[in-house]
Amino acid sequence: MFLDWIAELGLLQHDPVSNVLARFPLSVKKTLITEVTSTLLLTASDLSLLSTMAHMQWAMEVLGQGFGLPLEELTITQDTTQLYSQWLFDPQTRPSAFRQAAGTADEQRLYQTIFHHYSLLFEVRSTLPPSPGISHLYNPPHHRHSTTPVSNSSSSSSTHATPTPQVPVGVLVQRHIELCKKVLTVLTMAGRQLGTSFSEDTWEVLLKVVLGVTDSLLREHPTRSPALVSEHSKMSEDLCEHLLRVLFELWLRSNIRQVYMWDILKKCFNGWTHRTPVLQQWAASSHGLCQRVVRLLYGPGQGTELVNLARPVK
C-alpha cells in the first residue's frame, strides 16, 4: 500500500493482499483509524496489544489508510504520522511484536511498510467544494422493506442544525504541505539515525519511495485532472527544495551501488529540469560534494568536513 505513481514508474509493485479497506465507506475508515491510532498513541497503553506480526499487519492495514484521507481529515492523519514517528525513533513505545522483531527480517519489513504508507500522504487531493445536495458522510441505506416512518422532529432538527464551518481551501492545502514537510524530516532522520540498522533492501525501498514521491510532484502531468492542477502546482512549488534535499541526502547516505538505481534517478531527474529550484539544488549539492573532496585532498583549512546540501541563503 503506497503511492500509485511509485508502481507506475516500476519502482515497486503493489501487494494484492494489502489495502483491504480501500473500498470501505469513508465513515468506517475514519472510525477505525481514529480508534486504533488513539489507542496506540496512549503512553500508558498496553504494548502487548500487538504481540504478533499478524497483529502488527492488521493494525498497519488500518493505520496506512490514515495517510490517504481527504484534506478535511488531516487531524487524523497527523496522529497517524506521529504514531509512526514514535515507533521509528522511540523503541520503548513500539508494540511488543515490533520490539521482538529487532534484528530480524520482520523488523525490516515493518520499516518498509512505514515508508510505503508515508508515501500516500504526498498524493495530490482535490479540494473542490462538493456539489449542492451531496453529502460526503456515509449514511447507511434504509432497508427496502422498512416501514419505520421518518420522524418529523428529526427532520426539523436537522434542518435547523448549525452548519459546520468550512476551512478555506488554501488553508487545507497549506496544512497538507506542512505535514508533508514533517514527514520528509522524519524520513531524513530515519536515514541518519536508523540507517546503520537498515538492510540493503530497506534502503532500496526508502530510496524508491522518496524518488517516486519526488517524481510524482516535480514532473509535468499533462493528463492530470483540471481539478488537481492548482493543488499540484502549489505542492510542487513549496516542496521542491525539500524533496530534492532529502532525496540527495538519503541517496548519498545509502551508499547505493546498483547501476539500475542510478539509471532510474537520471531518467527521473531529466523530467524535473524545467524547474529552476531543481537546477539550483543540483548546483548546491555538487558544490557541497566538491568542498568535501577538497578537504580530503588538501586537509584542514580547505573545503569542508561535512557535505552541505543546503542552498546558500542570499
TrEMBL record:
Biased composition (Low complexity): 147-164
Domain Ral GTPase-activating protein subunit alpha/beta N-terminal: residue ranges: 173-300
Example GO molecular function: GTPase activator activity
Region (Disordered): 133-165
Pfam families: RALGAPB_N
PANTHER family on file: RAL GTPASE-ACTIVATING PROTEIN SUBUNIT BETA
Protein name listed in UniProt: Ral GTPase-activating protein subunit alpha/beta N-terminal domain-containing protein
Taxon lineage: Eukaryota, Fungi, Fungi incertae sedis, Mucoromycota, Mortierellomycotina
